[in-house]
Amino acid sequence: MRPDRFRHFAAIDWSGAAGERHAGIAVAICSAGDQAPELVRAGHRWSRAEVLDWLAGALPRDTLVGMDLGISLAFADRGAFLPGWAESPADARALWALVDATCADDPHLGVSSFVDHPAIAPHFRRHGGREGAHFADNGTRGGRGRFRVTERAQEAMGCKPYSNFNLVGAAQVGKSSLSGMRVLHRLAGRLPVWPVDPLPAHGSVACEIYTTIAAMAAGRTAQRSKIRDGGELDVALAALGSRAFGHMGAIDDHRSDAILTSAWLRTAAHDPGLWKPAGLTEEIARTEGWTFGAR
Predict the structure, then answer these.
(1) Does 185 reside within a domain?
(2) 8 Å CB contact between 183 and 68
(3) What is the pLDDT of residues 165-213, one digit of tens each?
(4) 267 occurs within a structural domain
(5) CB-CB contact of 237 with 244 (8 Å)
(6) Sheet bearing 26-31, strands edge to edge
(7) What pLDDT, on the 0 to 100 scale, is given for residue 137?
(8) CB-based contact 68:292 (threshold 8 Å)
(9) pLDDT, tens digit, 9 for 90 and up, residues 25-51
(10) Which of 5, 118, 163, 188 has a CA-to-CA distance to 101 between 20 and 30 Å?
């Protein structure tokens, strides 16, 4: 990876919550060098559709943009995303298309129609104690759910990932991941998504991020990955070679996650090992994808 491959580095803290606009969405960007990242539209309450428009039409040239969501579902463990269903998609892009088509009538890029689909719901753990018969990784009830190969790599690094089939609890990432898949499908032909798409020689690229990995690179532990104080954020930025953001006092962790991870992408993007992790095969890239930074 040549040092000048990317000129800008953006990180998006995402939300799959119901409704149009979300306090949980934050977008930060920085340029090559050591300037502190900036919040895009600081103070703005983003909608998912607005983020899609920004990615499609306002992303600066040669930007590596990380999205804090799962870009796919587990496949390798059971040879299918939705085993036992004849219409289970064959790869990640087909999965994105299925999610978007199934949810065509869901407003605000929501995904309720997908997780409530009678053939799909048995694979998810939903609210109200509704755990599908196929939620667990061994095909029985209970447990943490199915995991992708990249999520097992995250565990080996000391992180605690959650299954994208889990839709319950404050830390669940299922609906945010599925809503993100609708965005990725609509970006087809305009923004490559690594590693589902090969890394092109030039231009902007999207990838999956896990903000805990960025925090750990900045000297935090997985248990203390969330930053809610401006001074602590500046300490973490300094550990990544970045100038201070300069916010005094409390800051919500959505904004701090985006800011810190943008700075981390700037330091990590040119590490060739992160683009070729040991567990990333062609089949995994095509079906499950990968989290940038997971080794």
Answers:
(1) yes
(2) no
(3) 999 887 788 999 999 999 999 999 999 999 999 999 999 999 999 999 9
(4) yes
(5) yes
(6) 38-39, 26-31, 8-13, 63-68, 205-208
(7) 62
(8) no
(9) 999 999 999 999 999 999 999 999 999
(10) 163
Which residue segment(s) compose the domain that 192 sits in?
1-117+147-295
The b-or-e profile of 81-107 (16+ CB within 10 A means b, else e) is bbeeeeebbebbbebbbbbbebbeebe
In residues, how long is the chain? 295
CB within 8 Å of 234: residues ≥ 6 apart: 244, 245, 246, 247
In-domain check, residue 167: yes
Residue 292: which of 278, 275, 280, 279 has the closest Cα?
Answer: 275
Side-chain half-sphere of 111: how many Cα atoms within 13 Å? Answer: 29
pLDDT tens profile 226-267 = 999 999 999 999 999 999 999 999 999 999 999 999 999 999
Neighbours of 213 (CB within 10 A): 25
Quick check: is 132 in a domain? no
How far lies 197's CA from each of 73, 176, 245, in Å?
16, 21, 33
Residue 212: closest CA among 167, 279, 248, 264: 264
The total number of structural domains in the chain stands at: 1
- Determine whether 129 is exposed, middle or buried from the number of CB atoms within 10 Å of its CB (0-12, 13-18, 19+): exposed
* H or E element at residue 100: helix 92-102
Task: Let me know: does 111 contact 178? Beta carbons within 8 Å.
Answer: yes
Give the number of C-alpha atoms closer than 13 A to the C-alpha of residue 136, restricted to the C-beta side.
7
